[in-house]
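Final report, closing paragraph on structural work. Over the funding period we assembled a curated collection of sequence-structure pairs, and we close with a single example.
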Amino acid sequence: MEQLFRQEVLLGLLPRMESAIDTKTIHERLENQGISVDLRTLQRHLRELEKRFPHVKSKPKSPKAKARIWWADRSLSRLSLLPTDAMSLVMIMDHASRFGMAAQVTNLSALHEYARSLMREARPSQDWSKKVISNTRFITLRPGKVDPQVLETLQKALLDDYAVEAQYLKRGAPEAKSYRLLPLGLSYQDSNIYLSCVFANQIDALPVALPLHRFISVTTIPETIAAPDNYDINSVSAQRSLISLASDEPVPLRLLLSQEMYERLAENPLTEDQQLLDENGCRTMVGSTHLSQGLELWLLSQGDNLEVVEPSILREKMAATAQKMTALYLK
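Its predicted structure, as stored:
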């Protein structure tokens, strides 16, 4: 208990990096607090703290010196996480790293390692890399390469409501062109990052979505570009460009299901208002959702496990796509 008390006091004594202090100074400050400990024991305590807590740091006092100076990253030392919360944070960050945010997770490596250290401390004998994973049964494309400077500049522009001038390479274009635009929001989706924005002198002021991996460079500019009234990245107008939303309101959806799909949707509903009906072996799902590219892709991915009954426009589209696919395989 006495050792734990000393370590708690030590954590409170360690300054920020710019005010790092050597072991002798720490020893003197402990004595001023009425805590008596020999120098060698103190050195051992400090090494243990550095091993246990990523925010405790040290380095040689000078290139040739054996003595070390010590400090704490106060941005992390203020955190208090339960081991279960640390596990959740690690899972979230690992998931983000896999799906388009590897660079951002790298920038938060100190926080990532801090959460991992709490898990190791809770169960020192466990290798948590073999216990917790971010996974998916679906094949995902590799993320497009985003220039970190482009992302950082756009993030700052979002925070400060700045317009930017961007060199942007359209798909299939021979060279990049310059555009003046106002960043409105960022969407992390499908392994890529998209910028929701409006262009200077844009007539309709409807948000457009541009993938960040096509940006060559971005600089802020002192220009006022009008934003759409009451912009919300969750709105239908923003989602139309981001995820190819095809209806302003949710539309009624009716599907005929196989036994396997019926059981799956019973565990993982497709819509908030989903209802499953089983009448004499005729299994049906009814609900409502927006028409979108994502809905179409999901329906197609289920193969013969379901049939779209309503809406008719969606049924016709699925049938046309299925016919084209069949023609490819029956050549």
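The mean pLDDT is 87. The longest strand covers residues 177-189. We thank the funder for supporting this effort.
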